[in-house]
Amino acid sequence: MVRWMREEDLDAVAELEQLSFSIPWSREVLRQGFGGDLDQYLIFEENGKAAGYLNFRILAGEGEIERVAVHPQWRGRGFGRKLMEAMVEYASSQGVAEITLDVRVGNERARNLYESCGFVNEAIRRNYYRKPTEDAIIMWRRGA
């Protein structure tokens, strides 16, 4: 089930960061974002645990996905899709019709997910990612 993140989820989300990203956000960065005015956090809960999370923000009428992570043991079960669908639904309810994200060129699984959710490739950021150095694809979902 998808729900809004709660403060008690911070440790689980910090663990998801460690398991999912070569340069993970620290628990403190997550705490600051969670407590701030810009970022929104969704959790996919499975068996009472945070199996995945999505961080996004809405600014000046546009949405930006910052992070999407699913625990390795639960990948491939549609949890990322459920998080994306919930985020798009919420953004739409807030009058947001355009949402962007960036993704590693080599992250085919994530790219396929985003494309299946209506995102299209619009640009490349050369050498954007580190550990390893890799280009980012900038993707947009425009319109309802």
Strand order of the largest sheet: 1-2-3-4-5-7-6
The percent range for helix content is 25-40%
Largest sheet: 7 strands, mixed
Structural class: alpha+beta
Number of helices: 4
Mean pLDDT: 96
* Rg measurement, Å: 14 Å
N-to-C series of helices and strands: EHHEEEHEHEE
Instruction: Give the uncertain stretches in residue-range form.
Output: none
Secondary-structure topology with pairs:
Layout: E1 2-4, H1 10-20, H2 27-35, E2 39-46, E3 49-59, E4 62-70, H3 79-93, E5 98-104, H4 108-116, E6 120-129, E7 134-142
Parallel strand pairs: 4-5
Antiparallel strand pairs: 1-2, 2-3, 3-4, 5-7, 6-7
Could you characterize the architecture of this molecule?
- This protein is α+β, with helices and mostly antiparallel strands and 144 residues long.
- It is 31% helix and 40% strand.
- It has four helices and seven strands.
- It has helices at residues 10-20, 27-35, 79-93, 108-116; strands spanning 2-4, 39-46, 49-59, 62-70, 98-104, 120-129, 134-142.
- It has a seven-stranded mixed beta sheet with strand order 1-2-3-4-5-7-6, sandwiched between helices.
- The longest helix is centred in the middle third of the chain and has 15 residues, at 79-93.
- It is globular, with a radius of gyration of 14 Å.
- The two termini are 23 Å apart.
- The mean pLDDT is 96.
Search tags:
144 residues, alpha+beta, 7 strands, 31% helix, globular
How is this structure best summarized?
The protein has 144 residues and is of the alpha+beta class. Helices cover 31% and strands 40% of the residues. Strand 6 and strand 7 form a beta hairpin.
